[in-house]
Structures are given as C-alpha cells and as structure tokens.
Amino acid sequence: xxxxxxxxxxxxxxxxxxxxxxxxxxxxxxxxxxxxxxxxxxxxxxxxxxxxxxxxxxxxxxxxxxxxxxxxxxxxxxxxxxxxxxxxxxxxxxxxxxxxxxxxxxxxxxxxxxxxxxxxxxxxxxxxxxxxxxxxxxxxxxxxxxxxxxxxxxxxxx
Amino acid sequence: xxxxxxxxxxxxxxxxxxxxxxxxxxxxxxxxxxxxxxxxxxxxxxxxxxxxxxxxxxxxxxxxxxxxxxxxxxxxxxxxxxxxxxxxxxxxxxxxxxxxxxxxxxxxxxxxxxxxxxxxxxxxxxxxxxxxxxxxxxxxxxx
Lengths: 158, 143
Fold this sequence. Notes:
The complex is a heterodimer.
Chain A: H1 7-13, H2 16-19, E1 26-28, H3 39-49, H4 60-84, H5 88-113, H6 117-144, H7 148-157
Chain B: E1 2-4, H1 9-22, H2 38-66, H3 71-79, H4 85-113, H5 120-142
C-alpha cells in the first residue's frame, strides 16, 4: 500500500492532496502472490478500468448538458422572433421551448435538493406531470384562445 | 495489493445520504454562517427567478385549461378594476424583472459555458452589468 503513495506528496504539499489522488480510490485487498511481482501492470489495469467512466463527451449526462445549452440559445433567439413576427408557428415553438427549458431547469433543482431513491423518483414523476399539463395548457391556449404572443401584447397594452 | 472500485459516483452519493438519514445526523450550518457575496446572491436569484417563472407559466397554462372564459374576457375584468397607473406599472415591473434578470444572467451563464468570464473581477463586472440591465429593462417595460 505504501508503494502506491508517493512520499513526495506528503513531504512537499501536506496531507490534503493525498485525498485527491486516484491511488486512494482503490480498496486494499488480500494480496495474491502473483500481484506482488508486477505492480505497474496492476496500476495500468486499475486506471484502464476507469476509462469507461472517463471516456469522451458522449455519455447521456454530458449530452443532456449540451442539449440544455442548445435549448437555452434557441429560446433566446425566439424572443425577438416573437416580438417582430408573432403568429402560430412561434406560439407553438415558444410553448414547447418554454416548457422544456422549465422542465429541465426544475429537474436540476430536484437533483440538487432531493435525496433518496424513492423521493427522487416521486419528485421526477410529479415534475413530469406538471410539465405535461403545462405544455397541454399552452397548446390549448394557442389553439382556442389568442395565443402566447398576442396574450403578451394585450397584457402590455393596458 | 488493491482492487478497483465497482460502484458508481451515484451509488456512493446515495450511500452517503442514506447513512446521514439513518444516523439522524443534523445538517452542518452553511448558508447561515458563510459570508454572502454578490455572486452567491446572483446565483440563487437565477434559480429563484427560474422557479418563479416556470411556476407562473404553469399556473397560466392550468388556468387556460380550467377557466371557462377567454383571455380577453379576463383581461377586461382586470381593466374594470381600475387599478391605477402606479400599481399597473408596479405589476409590469414585477413581471418584467424576473424575466429580464433570468435572461441576462442566463446569457452570463452561457458565456461561462463557453469558458469565458471566470476571472473574479469579470464575475463581478458582468454580474453588476446583469443587475443594471435588468433594472433598466424592467423600468422601461413598466412605463
């Protein structure tokens, strides 16, 4: 075990950096005789087993992150469009983008503050229901009433 | 000598939270003792305005589904209450400010996502710019 911890870390930078070394993220195991011969090969295997988690930017989580930013930029662009050329296309696009942006935003709030598998599942189901109702209501409003752009225009005219 | 860990970060975090709940551990003071800074306040404002705006949109959508009358009908109803210019302006400011703040600060966030503006003086200058623009925009919208 001592062989895995570089003494220089302790001497030069104090104890704290030790906690961030990946060599501490392994559990000590009863040593089979053959592993004592080639520690560098074992280290290579440990690091490569984590390669799955360290792979490029194509995991579901990082794709979601990128999608969130793309949607934000899209929503930003919809503002001027809604102002300068209002109509049903932008009304429905706004309904979709607004709902999804809010849904993903509240999803991050749930991730940050809700803990425990059951509570997380409940919160996300509730959120999904809320977002579904929101999108339905907005589309209903666009179809049966004046639509989002006109509604904002009318509200501000008073 | 050692074996790689088989659990994910998510599993480890859940184990941590479960243990805290199981042992009934109290939460260490954090926001009650740490000195507040402008970036901290702006960050929670961004979240607060986001939650508020989403709540308002959802409330509007649910009202559209539930209420029998049309939008112009309810608008006229509000008009007939003769609220007065000051309160009307205040209401407009109250709607415009969360939207402006969240939008401008959202742009600031997107700059961070592109790796720009992380130096501490930049965090503060862009922060004050967002606040200033939000107030100006909302005041303009309220007139």
